[in-house]
Amino acid sequence: xxxKSAFCLTGVLALSLLVGCGKNEEAPESSAEAAPEPPPASxxxxxxxxxxxxxxxxxxxxxxxxxxxxxxxxLFNAAEDRFPENLDELISTxxxxxxxxxxxxxxxxxxxxxxxxxxxxxxPPGGAPSQQ
Length: 132
Fold this sequence. Notes:
The chain is mainly alpha-helical. The protein contains three helices and two strands. It has a two-stranded antiparallel sheet. A hairpin with a 4-residue loop joins strand 1 and strand 2. It is elongated.
């Protein structure tokens, strides 16, 4: 057991030395010599920062909401030895106080045979899914 611990400790130390000995770039001595230039307004990486943040927030909200409903389904299955017939059964049996509110344009899709739930883009009347 001591040999295994010593081997692991040696591996961790070696790895930390390798990571710590990376190449460092030195900053210029004076700020007047090499002032960084701002990126041009048409730079492709800086165009849609706010849009990217909004999409990331929406994705995070979907993941949290779907995960909480999935956890309630798993708890229901463990206690009742079956999957709920629909998501309303989770509320009526007390596994969820209410269904989480998904971001605008999304709805829950529940598959009772497998007990899986996911967030899907709502389909407006007429057939084509909306672009969110």
